[in-house]
Specification:
203 residues, alpha+beta, extended, 60s Ribosomal Protein L30, Chain: A, four-stranded mixed β-sheet, two-stranded antiparallel ribbon
Length: 203
């Protein structure tokens, strides 16, 4: 499932302990909550709106392993531009500043759970996350949420680890560099013969 979220990605705040005060002045049981603010609430609303616009909405049940791929699009500050709107030579090519990527991801996963896409963010078993600069008006995130095993390629054979069988590299003791190169070539050819690449496959 693909989502295009428009807005300013907001990091989920740090966890802090809170002990509510009772009417008699004593403190209740301490609970851990995430620090939130208006920016986080606006970002969650943007994620919810993106879910509502999704062409093919999917909801992943509790216990269903999920993969999330996300590109956070961070709007460049005006200070990165020269007069005339051209990017300054001193402007950083990559987003090497706050907010931290892990906190952005935490905020997104919590928002996906609030929107009902995820039953719980603990079911996310694989993540690929990137943050990049973008121009004004294009900030937000591009998000892909998939069943973890939907596009899994099953290796041939009955390997316990689930990894393709390796073709051993063999060479006589005292072999020279050309001998090792020839042995490596033979090993690669044997591996290709055992696990051929389908026609038209792209990497």
């Amino acid at each position: 499932m693909y989502l295009r979220v428009y807005g300013a990605p907001a990091p989920q705040g740090s966890i802090k302990p809170v002990a509510p005060r009772r009417k008699d002045g004593t403190r209740g049981r301490t609970v851990l909550i995430h620090e939130t603010g208006p920016k986080v609430k606006a970002w969650r609303a943007a994620v919810l709106a993106a879910v509502g616009r999704a062409d093919k909405l999917e909801r992943f049940a509790a216990g269903q392993p999920v993969e999330v791929i996300v590109i956070f699009r961070m709007t460049r500050p005006l200070a990165d531009y020269r007069a005339g709107g051209h990017l300054a030579d001193s402007a950083p090519a990559e987003h090497v500043k706050r907010p931290d990527l892990d906190k952005l991801l935490r905020g997104l996963l919590d928002a996906l759970a609030d929107a009902g896409v995820l039953a719980d963010d603990s079911q996310v078993c694989a993540v690929s996350a990137t943050k990049v600069w973008c121009g004004a008006g294009t900030g937000g995130a591009e998000v892909w949420v998939n069943d973890l095993h939907k596009f899994e390629v099953k290796p041939r054979g009955e390997q316990i680890t689930g990894e393709p069988e390796l073709i051993p590299l063999t060479a006589a003791a005292g072999a020279t560099v050309p001998d090792l190169a020839a042995a490596l070539k033979a090993s690669l050819e044997a591996a290709n013969a055992a696990h051929p690449v389908p026609d038209g496959a792209a990497f």
